[in-house]
Amino acid sequence: MGAGPNTLLLLHGFGTNRKSWYDVAPTLAKSSTVYLFDLIGTGNSPAPADWPYTMEAQTEMMYVFIRDNDLANIVLIGHSYGGGVCLLLLQKLLENGYDELVKKLILIAPAAYPQPLPFYIALPRIPLIGRTILQFLSAELQLKIAFNIVLKNRKVITKERIKRYSDNIRQPRYRKALIKTALNVLPQGIERVIEKIEKIRLSTLLIYGKNDSVILRKNLERLSSRLPNIVTKKIMYCGHVPHEEHPQLVADMISAFLCE
Fold it and tell me: What's the confidence (pLDDT) of residue 92?
């Protein structure tokens, strides 16, 4: 979408797809080139049965895309699981001599440190019982349960928003992909990735909701203290998905940060 000097690569969180960004993308596209991605196993991307569905594998796919399309002036933007992919992707670009391609980093409630998993991710990890329950729950009911956990601003839980993601979850191959992703949510050694990244002074924006019930506050504060050139924005009356709960505010925050 759009055109402009900055190349924004937007990576969604667990259980969603590129449509998670639909409320903020039009604003961002007024001044930047915006790429909305479906990670493997979501949206319009394939969901192969033999794919590993790890954060590292998703990172490799993004790395190849950047390399093969000669992208520059990149701003990595990741939410939750997608934020973790952004951190791994930045490390991989640095290790392979592409560090100058990345201009800025924007993390929205990112998965950056090990922690207890929320119910909607932990359930598929329970052998037999968890997966049996998921087979009997409709896609719409699964999403309503998850939304009531992750969203503070429940006014945004509309039929349209549920439909954004229900078509995927309803299909067996995508549901299996979701379960496999849940089994491999955080990679081993992601803390060491952050230790390497903190050695550079990449301009970073961290956005999170005051009422986030998914990412531990201490982990957000820990990340904020480790990255040397970071601006932290906390949004009031907001849960785990700021860009869907308060899209215009988040779009304005990102736009202002890009202009700095």
Answer: 92
Q: How far apart, in whole angstroms, are the C-alpha atoms of residue 225 and residue 223?
A: 5
Residues whose CB is less than 8 angstroms from the CB of residue 81 and which lie 6 or more positions away in sequence, other chains included: 12, 13, 14, 55, 111, 181, 185
Cα–Cα distance, 254 to 234 (Å, whole number)? 13
Q: Dump pLDDT digits (tens) for 85-109.
A: 999 999 999 889 887 899 999 999 9
Per residue in 140-164, pLDDT tens? 988 998 999 999 999 999 999 999 9
Residue with tokens 């990255």: 227
pLDDT bucket at 131, cuts 50 / 70 / 90: low
pTM, rounded to two decimals: 0.95
The count of other CB atoms within 10 Å of the CB of residue 256 is 12
- Strands lying side by side in the sheet with 102-108: 32-36, 6-11, 74-79, 102-108, 204-209, 230-235
pLDDT computed for residue 250 by the predictor: 98
